[in-house]
Design goal:
Organism: Diaporthe ampelina
CATH class: Mainly Beta
Distance between the termini: 26 Å
Order of helices and strands: HEEEEEEHEEEE
Keywords: Hydrolase, Membrane, Mitochondrion, Mitochondrion inner membrane, Protease, Transmembrane, Transmembrane helix
InterPro entries: IMP2, LexA/Signal_pep-like_sf, Pept_S26A_signal_pept_1, Peptidase_S26
Shape: globular
Helix content: under 10%
Family: Belongs to the peptidase S26 family. IMP2 subfamily.
CATH superfamily: Umud Fragment, subunit A
CATH architecture: Ribbon
Membrane topology: Single-pass membrane protein
Radius of gyration: 14 Å
CATH topology: Umud Fragment, subunit A
Length: 132
């Protein structure tokens, strides 16, 4: 989640501790939220990404996704990392909401970055072509 959760590319897994809300994690999902989920390509790996699209949304995709646009299917979300080289839904497609394990609510460590995650302040890019 470079640069939002870390200043240096690809160091999130070692340098940051985040608090996640796991109770009802698959409910009340919103665009801009940061969620943790099991990677669909490596099911043993927990991943952290931002929700860009909800079921029914039309998303303008990026390479390597094979089409320019996709409508997010029912019970799925479109997730992307904040960095340009992120492995996200543009690589593995929309993910099932059932894979979501938590909603990131706070950054706890490093202490100088400790804060509530204000996902609602994140400006969604032009990636959202149409909402449901």
């Amino acid at each position: 989640m470079y640069p939002y959760l870390n200043e240096n590319y690809n160091e999130t897994r070692f340098g940051y501790v985040c608090l996640t809300w796991k109770l009802y994690a698959q409910q009340n999902l919103h665009r801009g939220m940061i969620v943790t989920f099991y990677n669909p390509m490596k099911p043993e790996t927990m991943t952290i990404k931002r929700i860009i699209g909800l079921p029914g949304d039309m998303i303008h995709t990026k390479a390597p996704f094979p089409t320019s646009y996709i409508r997010v299917p029912p019970n799925h979300i479109w997730v992307e990392g904040d960095g340009t080289k992120s492995l996200d839904s543009n690589t593995y497609g929309p993910i099932s909401i059932r894979l979501v394990e938590g909603q990131v609510t706070h950054i706890l460590w490093p202490f100088r970055k400790a804060q509530r995650v204000k996902w609602w302040e994140h400006r969604l890019t032009d990636r959202l072509a149409a909402t449901r």
